[in-house]
Amino acid sequence: MALLDRLFGSHGENADPSVYGEHRATERIAVGRISTLYRGEHVRTREPVAIKVLSEYGDRVADKLTQKLKKPWEGERALALQHPNVVRTIACGKEHGHYYIVMEYLAGGNAASLLQVKSPLVEGRKIEIMRQAARGLEYVHSRGIIHRDICLRNIMLTADGTAKLIDFGVAAHKSDRIRDTGRRTGRPAYMAPELIRHNHFDERTDIYAFGVALYELACGQKPYRTSDDPQEALTIVLNTPIPGPSTVRPSVSRPLEKIILQAIDPRPQARYQSVSYLLDDLSRVTDADL
User: Fold this and answer.
1) Which residue has the higher pLDDT, 41 or 181?
2) Under a CB-based contact definition with an 8 Å cutoff, are residues 75 and 89 in contact?
3) Which helix (DSSP H) or strand (DSSP E) does residue 212 occupy?
4) Which residues are known to be catalytic?
């Protein structure tokens, strides 16, 4: 705790259980296994923020990373990421016995929800949103980080429509030796075959997940209709041929279809080998290709 105090400027526990460092949680937004997300504000300036408070399970994961493995936990890792297309982390620390992360509040919503309601924030800008998200991912990879949970829900928009990658809860440095834990991370429909089979991840597993998100954006559905049962879902992903985007939605152009299919090629060596190459091709298509 003393180390956290020195790193993040905490001077002891706040008596108010809703206060985390210099920010107050005002409204619960979502609850998950690893964390609870709150809308919040700075206690003095009232600047709106989002506050992620880890659960007991999340705390144990963070403790293991910091104390046993001597690795940075999610908050520390996120603080080091500074890019226009990556959510800005303002502060992190430990309060009331839980790790917490304070981030900029993204008022626009997530790309998955916005696409469903045909929001003006995304209509006519779908490819540009994915280009912005890809720039964020390119930057994350340049810092040696593999996101491991790329999906439309983890692409958020600001009020002015800028796309930002969020949620680095299962991110890992590419040098981390956690391949053989037997635990898969991410969502089955977005998992690359090598991640399912061997728990191997690198930049290309993120590219595969990005390709699935791009397929979903172009076709209005994922390449697979996955089951709620994790094992059954993984079997479907491994054994179901991917229908070409233009067979699902004939308006999808050949250049866009080619980008999507290369991103989600089941063979890692046949995929885009870096996000930079993917971005080069994305720069040549527009919403007219959808």
Assistant:
1) 41
2) yes
3) helix 203-219
4) 149
Q: Which has the higher per-residue pLDDT, 16 or 185?
A: 16
The enclosing domain of 115 has a CATH number of 1.10.510.10
Please say if the pLDDT value at position 4 is more than 60.
Answer: no
* DSSP code, position 86: B
Residue with tokens 């520390």: 76
Consecutive H or E run containing 63: helix 56-63
Domain shared by 129 and 272, yes or no: yes
User: Domain boundary at 64, 86, 104, which?
Assistant: 104
Q: What single string gives the DSSP state of each residue in 126-155?
A: HHHHHHHHHHHHHHHHHTTEE-S--SGGGE
Which DSSP category does 287 fall into?
G
Residue 156, domain extent: 109-289
pTM attached to this predicted model: 0.91
Task: Please report the pLDDT score of residue 230 as a whole number.
Answer: 61
Q: Give the span between the Cα atoms of 12 and 17, in whole angstroms.
A: 13
pLDDT at residue 178, as a whole number = 54
